[in-house]
Structures are given as structure tokens and as C-alpha cells.
Amino acid sequence: MFRLDDAAKTIKFTNNTPLTITRFDRSWISAESDSVSYEFDRQDGTLSFASSTMKDGVATTIVGSGRCQIAAAPRR
Description:
Elements: E1 2-5, E2 10-13, E3 20-24, E4 28-33, E5 36-41, E6 46-55, E7 58-67
């Protein structure tokens, strides 16, 4: 799960680990963390992610996608 701060233009995992932002606008967010790339389409809520590694001449690629929902803001 992610925490998105539009005002600060930041995105973090729920454990407060920040992601490196490469694009942040009203329609799209691109970010990276630990060699995983995330693409979030803000128009339809689709999140895609991809990562690849190479070990002993063998490449492994992981790709996935899903839909995001906006969680209720925590009570203060």
C-alpha cells in the first residue's frame, strides 16, 4: 500500500519508506524503489509494476498490475 501526498508530490509505502519519483502530474505517477518501477494511472486507478534481475546469466522479469482504491483518511 502507498501513501500519496499531492501537495508535497511524494509517495511512500505505508511503512514510510519513500519512493523515488520520476513523474508526478494530474494523470500519471512514475516511481521507483529497490529496482522496482511503479506506474500509476490516476485516471483509472491502474497500478503496474516491473522488476528484472540477472543471476548466473539468467534474467528474471517480474511484471504485475492491479487497481488501486482510495482509502479513507485516518482520523486525527
